Please model this.
Amino acid sequence: MPVKVKPRPMNSLRADQTANIPTTIKNPVRVAHRRTELIEVATKLFLERGFHNTSIRDIVRACSFNIASLYMYVSSKEDILYLVAQDLMNNIARELGETPLIKGSARESLEHGFSSYCGIADRLRRPIRLLYREVAFLPEGPRGNVLGTVADVVSFFERIVEQGIETGEFRNVNPRMTALDIMVKCHTIALHTREVRELTNLNQYIDYQLKMLFAGLIAEPDAKKKAVSKATSKSRR
Model:
């Protein structure tokens, strides 16, 4: 039975991210449309059956084109997995990047960013689990591209932590390590959904983890005063 998919805008992949996936089609708009359909169909099949239990023919049967046409847009099932993984991470990074941050308050920015990403992880928990499970089967180059986009998510939180350290709101922690820890806490919702849901709901999970984060991050009151004083002295020079 064909897998039903809802149409959506063309995929989020940039040309430089798909340059290593060969195509015989010269029209980039047509390539984007076809690859978007492949992403939609393959995501559903990979989620239902797993990457290794899904064949190229399974994917073609659920698409609007035949197997000969498919090989005009990709050369292997690994190419399709890469399209699925990179599209997922691009959309996550884009949505997280649209989260409004609070100027002058790293704490509030972290609250907004963490809440937003937990919501994304909860909504996309099955694709995120797929990414963790299957990304290791990608060739080194494509895998590096996907992990590079994951690093963009870490960088989003790293910038907030750096801001908090600079303003004296946060202790002098390792920003990158802290940001990685924040991302993992968000991904726990996707990777351990059943366990989390047995313990709490999404909003309570967010509140709990934020309290734990801030318990280790928030600086002593006089640290912020020193940071403000230092910034003021620099501005007067």
About this structure: The chain has a mean pLDDT of 87. Residues 15-81 form a domain with the Arc Repressor Mutant, subunit A fold (CATH 1.10.10.60). The chain has eleven helices and no strands.
